[in-house]
């Protein structure tokens, strides 16, 4: 289905150790995580909280297992803090990823985000940006995009539950406010479905801007519970709202077909934050790998 060498498959370490809730997977080591990624048949990884920050140390550990770094999350605060503060932290992050050979930098605006708040209802108290915040976000992302380009890298914006850029309408507004040469889009199937959007429609609407893909699925019965009981994002994760492709309700066949017919090149990253005590990371990594191979040929 996909052109040879156009797409490579990675998996995020959040299934082994959760960055937002370190108690989830606390006993899982970095070495276990990357060894099981390789055992399950993946080619790459994003960066987790237990990964060494020395490029030399990290590179050696990955090379022993035939893995590469696809990217890593960066929290921006462009709507609530001076641009210079975010830009300084971004350059440190950029330089680390550049040394690791990554081509894209995942950025998500965390100004007024509720995604890390354990008791804040996810849907009832979702932040909504005003015009001034939208302007600050767009201008700031443009600046970060230019900083990324200095190293030949691309900024990909991560729409995310519990933030000011979550819905399809908000994604469209951000794309309209930013320069395609400075800001690209990370397409995340799970966050779109969780938000009540149609992932295939969003894909078709923004395909030329998409430079990075996160593949995750949702359990619709848990998502309904989150809404009915006014749970937070973190409570939703612990309850099992997310799962790997092939274990939920998203129709990935059409999504893969659309991407395969496009000029897209880069990484697909399996990412399903679950409690590893309830969802064995290796088991689910293998389940996702088999499903993606059967459906897409990757």
From TrEMBL:
Q: Which Gene3D superfamilies match?
A: Divalent-metal-dependent TIM barrel enzymes
| Keywords recorded for this protein, A-Z | Cobalt, Lyase, Manganese
Keyword Kinase in the entry? The reply is no
Cofactor(s) in the UniProt record: Co(2+); Mn(2+); glutathione
Q: In which pathway does it act?
A: Polyol metabolism; myo-inositol degradation into acetyl-CoA; acetyl-CoA from myo-inositol: step 2/7
Q: Which chemical reaction does it catalyze?
A: scyllo-inosose = 3D-3,5/4-trihydroxycyclohexane-1,2-dione + H2O
Q: Where does the Xylose isomerase-like TIM barrel domain start and stop, copy by copy?
A: 38-294
Parts forming coiled coils: none
- Which EC number(s) are documented for this chain? 4.2.1.44
One MF term in GO for this entry?
A: myo-inosose-2 dehydratase activity
Q: Pfam families per the record?
A: AP_endonuc_2 (PF01261)
Q: Which family does it belong to?
A: Belongs to the IolE/MocC family.
- Name of the featured protein: Inosose dehydratase
Q: What is the species listed in this Swiss-Prot or TrEMBL entry?
A: Paenibacillus tritici
């Amino acid at each position: 289905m996909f052109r040879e060498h156009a797409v490579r498959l990675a998996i995020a370490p959040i299934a082994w150790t959760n960055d937002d809730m370190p108690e989830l997977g606390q006993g899982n080591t970095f070495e276990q995580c990357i060894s099981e990624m390789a055992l399950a048949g993946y080619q790459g990884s994003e960066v987790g909280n237990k990964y060494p920050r020395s490029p030399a140390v990290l590179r050696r550990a990955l090379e022993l297992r035939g893995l590469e770094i696809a990217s890593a999350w960066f929290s921006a605060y462009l709507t609530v803090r001076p641009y210079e503060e975010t830009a300084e932290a971004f350059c440190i992050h950029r330089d680390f990823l550049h040394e690791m050979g990554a081509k894209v930098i995942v950025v998500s605006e965390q100004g007024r985000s509720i995604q890390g708040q354990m008791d804040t209802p996810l849907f009832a108290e979702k932040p909504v940006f005003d015009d001034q915040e939208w302007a600050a976000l767009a201008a700031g992302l443009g600046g970060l995009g230019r900083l990324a380009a200095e190293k030949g890298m691309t900024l990909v914006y991560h729409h995310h539950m519990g933030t000011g850029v979550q819905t399809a309408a908000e994604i469209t507004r951000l794309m309209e406010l930013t320069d395609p040469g400075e800001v690209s889009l990370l397409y995340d199937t799970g966050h779109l479905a969780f938000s009540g959007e149609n992932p295939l429609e969003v894909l078709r609407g923004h395909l030329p801007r998409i430079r990075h893909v996160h593949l995750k699925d949702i359990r619709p019965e848990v998502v309904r519970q989150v809404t009915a009981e006014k749970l937070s994002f973190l409570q939703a994760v612990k309850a099992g709202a997310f799962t790997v492709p092939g274990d939920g309700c998203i129709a990935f066949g059409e999504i893969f077909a659309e991407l395969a017919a496009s000029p897209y090149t880069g990484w697909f990253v399996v990412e399903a934050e679950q409690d590893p005590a309830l969802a064995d990371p290796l088991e689910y990594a293998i389940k996702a790998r088999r499903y993606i191979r059967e459906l897409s040929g990757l």
